[in-house]
């Protein structure tokens, strides 16, 4: 009984320390930009600025800190509800729950489009952290993809942007191999644009919608983690306004011994303005299709599991 009480007290103190550290974040803290896609291949966060504080009190600013702070500020119920880690087989910190999903450890995360070795990898101000959940926990043929840039300064309306899309596979020695992705469909705020990447992975998109534009991609040939590129287009956000005008119908009937006359007012009319585009960025770029296999699924799965356990 005493042992259980002591463990409960220790857990309460740990959670309290984490919460106080997160709440102590200020505008002067370094920031990282966090993107997370769920097991439906949907972007649930896209380059969200997150204060980087030492949330786990280990004396360093790490990926684990970024994940804790992200869930505290963006996930309903905070880190206690959406995020969990434990000590792995080899003594390192391993990821057990991400964005509320527990699937046996089938997650991935990259910092600045580089493969991360573990949750204790350090981050610095301005870094980009992209995390994802495998759609099928038993199938590791799901490939990290990325554009050649993450963001740009504010752009004028009708600016054309050319992006190059690549994705990673693994060489036989488990080093990363960069591949250009042809035939991927480019989306803006969740909507297909008609732009498709060429043999060099390039596509050009015209940005016409004012406000925050989230550019991503999906492919029918390679099962990819949604890439992200964000740019703000100058101009007023367009809102939808609908106006309806109604004229009341009046009927007058006059009756005499010889005639009966009925007079009606004009019919009711309604006029609505044209519905404009929704300026709120949409998520849900669902990428599906056949996976490109560059090494045996069993070998790849073993490698990923080994990496997870070593973290």
What features would you describe in this structure?
By secondary structure, this protein is of the alpha+beta class. Helices cover 17% and strands 31% of the residues. The protein is built from four helices and 17 strands. The strands form five sheets. A five-stranded mixed sheet has the order 2-1-7-5-6, with helices on one face. Strands 8, 9, 10 and 13 form a four-stranded antiparallel sheet that branches. Strands 12-11-14-15 form a four-stranded antiparallel sheet, with no helix packed on it. The longest helix has 22 residues, at 2-23. It is globular, with a radius of gyration of 27 Å. The two termini are 33 Å apart.
How much of the residues is beta strand, in percent? 25-35%
How many beta-strand runs? 17
- The sequence of SSEs as H and E is HEEHHEEEEEEEEEEEEEEEH
Count of individual helical segments? 4
**Which residues sit in consecutive blocks of at least 5 with pLDDT less than 50?**
1-24, 239-311
Mean pLDDT over the full residue set: 77
| Ends apart, CA distance between termini | 33 Å
Largest sheet: 5 strands, mixed
- Biggest sheet, spatial arrangement of strands: 2-1-7-5-6
What structural class do you assign from the helix and strand content?
alpha+beta
Shape: globular
Helix coverage percent of residues? 10-25%
Rg, rounded, reads 27 Å
